[in-house]
Design a protein that fits this description.
90 residues; five-stranded mixed β-sheet; globular; 40% strand; alpha+beta
């Protein structure tokens, strides 16, 4: 199983609506590792390490996010492999 790491930057109404919690829960359900973190500019950064299918499923999830959120923009960037323990909320 080839693992890789992808960084997503999610813009919109994504802070103060449980976005990180729901994203971390979804990541754990996928069996992936990583974190979801609020950024100073109101965006959320999501780092995920997993196989191609897990990363693509997270991508599709982040296009809409939880019902309480509004996603206006989603950027995806392949980054160097990083090993994480679990899926954290930072």
């Amino acid at each position: 199983m080839d693992l890789s790491t992808t960084k997503f930057i999610v813009s919109g109404r994504v802070q103060g609506v449980g976005f990180r919690y729901h994203t971390a829960y979804f990541g754990l359900k996928l069996g992936a590792t990583g974190y979801a973190k609020n950024l100073w500019d109101g965006d959320v950064e999501v780092m995920i390490t997993g196989n191609e299918e897990q990363i693509n499923q997270m991508h599709h999830y982040l296009l809409d996010g939880p019902r309480s959120a509004r996603v206006d923009n989603l950027r995806r960037e392949e980054v160097d492999y990083q090993a994480f323990q679990g899926f954290d909320i930072l």
